[in-house]
Write a structure and sequence with these properties.
homodimer; alpha/beta; seven-stranded mixed β-sheet; disordered C terminus
């Protein structure tokens, strides 16, 4: 069977599509683990609870990997999406705030598997500084700038209360950080060229609270596409 | 100055609007803390980095709290949004999985302040069962069903690996849980009347990775509206 070679032509892709790619990546990874080599948009749509036409439209953004009556090559699509998401290279990451949430992230095995390598943890609490989390010794926040420069850190995770978040974010940016994964419950203003991805847990909990209080107003019980 | 009394008429509200309400709630809460009584859609738009017309459209969904040339009454709007989000009542919550992430949630002071009361923690690890987190003793998972029934628990937080998530979710639903805050990296199928809010941290990290790898393709550096 002849494999058609397709060139990857990245168009201007909407945020909504990008937002859905990690979920495609997860499902394709599970299919791969289960030894599935090919899948039709129809089958994938049944598993993912989205329409087959949405799947075709989404994946067409990347040059169209599917072939009529033949389906998608699972491994090829998985690897292409990995490239698009930047998962085909290593990202050096630090965590600011070595409390429960920072420790949870440092201990999460799947991040490393996907190329996100936690290189350092920082805290201001003298009781935490010097302790080890997943084999990494927690450093004092005064070492931040030097460490970022020396170790070529690209991504900083902010797992601190909102009080100090803006000040620390400014220090991170001045030190050359290109991306902030922000768990502090505040919005950060960053210059062009620096990206922020917010995870505001209490806002997620409020959406849940809304939905449990207004089940009848909600279109479906499971808001997959929100992720 | 005469206060106009407005009746709250809840229309069919889009997910996008609901998704933005917690952020309005946060900004209004900060304004209140700073003693601000009134704010125009224009001022609010500058603080929140969204257009004034978006703010007016969003808030009009709830019957329109603003008055031309007068602005919004911050406290009134704050309390109305709280009602809409179901934050005007207490929600009893349990956490399944008392690892770092479960502990982080149990220790988060703002959840309780907003009416989300962590009543119980559950784990399968005998080394964790019996220990205390924020004053709550961790119970064995075998006590789950009885506890949910006795304590009238509405919301369950799933902070466990995906391996057992589907099985535990089914037990929760059978025991009468109405909402699952799901941190397990898998999608849950739930019957009508049960809501799931997913927090897939690795998907958030992948979006960050995409954006740091494709900064030029991204429309703005800070994706506020994604939250």
């Amino acid at each position: 069977m002849k494999e058609r070679i397709m060139t990857l032509e990245v168009k201007k892709i909407s945020k909504a599509v990008i937002g859905r790619l990690p979920r495609y990546y997860r499902y394709l990874g599970e299919l791969l683990e289960n030894g599935v080599e090919r899948i039709s948009s129809h089958e994938l749509s049944e598993r993912m609870h989205v329409t087959a036409s949405q799947i075709r439209q989404d994946l067409n953004n990347f040059g169209g990997f599917g072939q009529q009556g033949y389906g998608y090559n699972v491994e090829f699509l998985y690897l292409e999406i990995a490239k698009i998401l930047g998962l085909d290279r290593q990202h050096n990451l630090i965590i600011i705030g070595a409390g429960n949430l920072g420790q949870a992230i440092a201990n999460y095995p799947n991040f490393q598997k996907r190329g996100f390598v936690v290189r350092g943890l920082f805290d201001i609490n003298p009781e935490i500084v010097g302790t080890f989390v997943n084999g990494i010794q927690v450093r004092g926040i005064e070492e931040l700038e030097q460490y970022i420069e020396q170790e070529e850190i690209q991504i900083a995770t902010l797992t601190i209360p909102k009080t100090n978040a803006v000040e620390i974010a400014n220090r991170l940016i001045a030190a050359g950080i290109k991306a902030i994964w922000n768990f502090a419950h505040t919005d950060l203003s960053v210059p062009k060229g620096v990206v922020v991805e917010n995870v505001h847990l209490s806002e997620s909990l409020m959406r849940l609270s809304y939905r449990v209080s207004n089940t009848e107003n909600w279109e479906s019980s499971n808001a997959f596409e929100e992720q």
